[in-house]
Amino acid sequence: MSLSNKRLQISQSKLQKIEEYNKRLTDQLNMQCIATSEASESLIRYCNATNDPLLPSIWGKVEKEDDPYAPSTTSCCVIS
């Protein structure tokens, strides 16, 4: 492989990396943005509306069958 071919390959590789970086930046630029206050308000609404079984002091005691974090009462397999 001659020196000029090697330089051409390196240049093409650099160009490809720059084009990929440019695409990522363009995608980021086209991403929908919302104001911080709007995002905060949305997060507060979600937290107030979503029941969290790990916070019984706020939402009340959760029954074992409704608690996704309670240990399973059934075994995972049966051997007969």
TrEMBL record:
One of its GO terms (molecular function) is G-protein beta-subunit binding. GO terms for cellular component: heterotrimeric G-protein complex. Keywords: Lipoprotein, Membrane, Methylation, Palmitate, Prenylation, Transducer. It comes from the Eukaryota. GO terms for biological process: G protein-coupled receptor signaling pathway; pheromone-dependent signal transduction involved in conjugation with cellular fusion. PROSITE patterns: G_PROTEIN_GAMMA (PS50058). Residues 11-79 form the G protein gamma domain. It is found in: Membrane. The keyword Membrane applies. Pfam families: G-gamma. It is a peripheral membrane protein. G proteins are composed of 3 units, alpha, beta and gamma. Belongs to the G protein gamma family. This is Guanine nucleotide-binding protein subunit gamma.
